[in-house]
Every structure is written in structure tokens, then in C-alpha cells.
Write a structure and sequence with these properties.
Layout (H helix, E strand, L loop, with lengths): L5 E4 L6 E2 L1 H14 L18 H8 L7 H18 L5 E2 L3 H10 L3 E9 H11 L7 E5 L10 H10 L6 E5 L2 H10 L2 E5 L6 H6 L4 E3 L3 H6 L1
Helix pairs in contact: 1-3, 2-3
């Protein structure tokens, strides 16, 4: 692997375990819209493609309309904005990893399909000690991952070449994002998706613990 200068991290399932807060707020929105809720353990397969796709997956068959997704989004954001750090937490070893990388001179960035305000708030809440080069969530007019646009935007802002980037994520969406951007990728096995999904979507490397990323570098 070429020498790296920048590591780009996915957020949910990679840096933090946020599944309970996401499940609670989605279930709140479903209740507000008079639809049945789901157990928390079903949500890892619903998240990862942005909140509109989450709502589409959570809504019952026959109710997955654009209007219902708008209603869900309004109820979800009202709840999640106030409760998005209550049950979420960084995975074990992540804070030490980020601190070590920063102290070693690497640039660090976040590329998430979570909406921008939520991404910014959560990253700064859990990792205030890290001077992030960029924090990118889903933004109006910018396609969501696995479209690689978000990686290209971070590249442009940081002035780092493709071969100097390592992209870290927990899902097939993340591995496809890296593959389409033509940057090296690391699939983490502690997140929301399986090793099989990471392999099927062209993960370049695989790690079971955060400190193994340091060994790769």
C-alpha cells in the first residue's frame, strides 16, 4: 500500500455505534405517522444509504410514497436532533486510534450519508479533540454514497492525491464508494454489516480492531 496522508472515515457503524438512537428516532417517526415500529436489531440492515432510504425501508409495503417519506423525515429530525447522542458511543479503541493518527501527522476526514447537521454535531460531540480536515454529511444537490463525489470533494479541499487516501467503512456502500473513487479501502468488521458484504463489494483490506489500521499504515 502506498504511503497515506489522509484517512476518510464513515461515521455510523465505523466510528460510532449509533444504531439505538437511529432506531428510536425512526420508531418515533413511524408512531407519529401511525405505522408499526421495528425492533432495534432490524435496523443495521436499514441504515447506510441516507435517512430517506432508511424511511423507505422502515415504512410498510404500499406506504413507501414520497409524501410519507417527507412526513417521516419531519418527525424523525424533530426527535433525532435532540436525542442523537443519548445511546450512541464510539467503538472501543476508536478515540485512541484517531488521537494517534492525528499525532502522527495524518489528515482525518468524515464522509457520511447522514444529513450534514447531524454528522457535524455528532462528530464534534464525540471527538472534539480532533481537528478534522473535513466533515461531510449528506448535502442538498450532492449524491449520496456509493457515488464517489463526497470523496472527490474531500480530496479537492485537502489537496491530497488518490493514492495518498485510505477510506475506512463498515458496509458495502463504503467499499463501493472507495472502489468507484479508486482509493484504497479498509472494511471494519465491528460495524453494522457482515464480512461477506465487505468482501463482495471489493474491500481492499479488512480489520477486526481499530488498532489494526495503524499496522496497515
Amino acid at each position: 500500500m502506498n504511503k497515506k496522508k489522509l484517512l476518510i472515515f464513515d461515521l455510523d457503524g465505523t466510528l460510532i455505534n449509533s444504531i439505538e438512537d437511529l432506531a428510536n428516532s425512526t420508531n418515533f417517526a413511524l408512531q407519529q405517522c401511525n405505522y408499526p415500529t421495528h425492533p432495534t436489531n432490524r435496523y443495521p440492515l436499514m441504515v447506510g444509504n441516507g435517512i430517506n432510504k432508511l424511511f423507505e425501508r422502515a415504512l410498510p409495503g404500499g406506504e413507501k410514497t414520497a409524501a410519507n417519506i417527507v412526513r417521516m423525515r419531519q418527525a424523525f429530525l424533530a426527535h433525532y436532533s435532540n436525542h442523537n447522542t443519548e445511546k450512541s458511543y464510539p467503538y472501543e479503541g476508536i478515540t485512541n486510534l484517531l488521537t494517534t493518527l492525528h499525532q502522527s501527522g495524518y489528515k482525518l476526514a468524515v464522509a457520511s450519508n447522514k444529513y450534514q447537521a447531524g454528522t457535524q454535531k455528532i462528530v464534534q460531540h464525540f471527538f472534539p479533540q480532533i481537528p478534522w480536515a473535513e466533515i461531510y454529511g449528506q448535502q442538498e444537490g450532492v449524491p449520496t454514497k456509493p457515488d464517489p463525489t463526497i470523496v472527490f470533494k474531500i480530496m479537492q479541499q485537502t489537496q491530497v492525491k488518490k493514492e495518498e487516501i485510505l477510506y475506512v467503512g463498515d458496509s458495502g456502500v463504503d467499499m463501493q464508494t472507495a472502489y468507484r473513487a479508486k482509493v484504497d479501502s479498509v472494511g471494519v468488521t465491528w460495524g453494522f454489516r457482515t464480512k461477506e458484504e465487505l468482501v463482495e463489494n471489493k474491500a481492499g483490506f479488512m480489520v477486526d480492531r481499530p488498532k489494526e489500521i495503524l499496522d496497515l499504515l
